[in-house]
Amino acid sequence: MANFKYIAIDTKGHRLEGTVEMLSLEEAGHEVRKMGLKIISIIKVKNKRKKLKFSEINLTPPKIDPSLKVIFFRELATLMNAGIQLVDGLSILKLQFKDKHFVKAIESITKMVKAGHPFSEALKQHPRIFPRLVVSLIKAAELGAGLVTILNQIASYIEREEKIRKKLKTATSYPRFVLGFFTLVLAGVVFGLLPKFKDIFESFDAELPASTTALLAGSTFIREHLIIEIVLIVGLTIAFKLFKKSDTGRYFIDQHIFMLPIAGSLMQKSMITRMMQTLCVLLKSGVPLIKALKIAGETADNVYVDKVVGKIGNQVAQGRSFGSQVQKYPDIFPTMVSSMIAVGEKSGSLAVMLEKIAEFSDQDFSAKVDRISETIEPIMMAGLGVVICIIVLALYLPIFQMSGAIH
Hints:
Elements: E1 2-9, E2 15-22, H1 25-34, E3 38-45, H2 66-81, H3 86-94, H4 100-114, H5 119-124, H6 132-145, H7 147-204, H8 210-224, H9 226-245, H10 247-256, H11 263-284, H12 289-299, H13 303-317, H14 322-326, H15 335-347, H16 350-406
Antiparallel strand pairs: 1-2, 1-3
Helix pairs in contact: 2-3, 2-7, 3-4, 6-7, 6-11, 6-12, 7-8, 7-16, 8-16, 9-10, 11-12, 11-16, 12-13, 15-16
């Protein structure tokens, strides 16, 4: 949205000045004429920078509670099902929320829809609140898939994603705490305990075991090159983020991300669940397979998958079967998925089979998360125990040797 300053004359011949907030100069002019004014001039003006108070400064972008988005889409579906128009429904819903950032987003969306823009385009202006999947599904509804059905589908998707996120957070919260605490203890050992042991050993001028020598040498190296290590870590982090933001880097990461141990498999199953559910909803709503594939590819939130799905869509458009094309990409779609798609395509029940694939992938995802939460804690504790044992033995073995020599 931009601000446009206008000078106009009203019906009584009085000269008026004012501003309107619109997307383009044409829309601003149309809005002024709707007020019954005759335009003399209209120009785009720069928004004045608001002086921020210290209390208003946010270092991170505002996060919207997923439950608010669920309520938004469910109530909008209910209102439209009752015969209320989209613009009126949005105006009503704006009054239901107290979160100022969410209310501001709804106001912006309402203005765009009133101005004649598609609902999906209005949602697209707020990517931090409404992800690509939501925009793609709304776009599908605008193609004739049924907006009420899609709105309920979006609400269910957000609920499911939030449930998965909370499940993952719960499963990893204790290991993250243990790992953080152990890192602090290890830093205390490296910067506090090991230097004292080194002084003690040097005062005795005793020959140290290889493990103790290596441990003390490592500790000395870390302490003496601390600034270089910090600069290196920060530099590598910035370089990785820049690489990830570039088109080449994003494509490379998305192409290989499913190869990561444990996390890669979870992300793959989550992606398959989203894509298959989206395809199922679109096909059941009457959207052609080729258009449905294009939209489903966008929901993957993975540029490599999106490109592959685009290739599959092009091949399907040329008369090739969906199942045979999916089989060409086992790194994205496991054999079970491609086989079930082929069977569903041959039997004429592709939408039903896609729903089953999404169901199986979702169940498998939940089972894997449960297994990880059950096994990661004992594995981590065992690993930390081994590290502690190595440090203790390396430090106390020379003491035992010197005590034996004294006796």
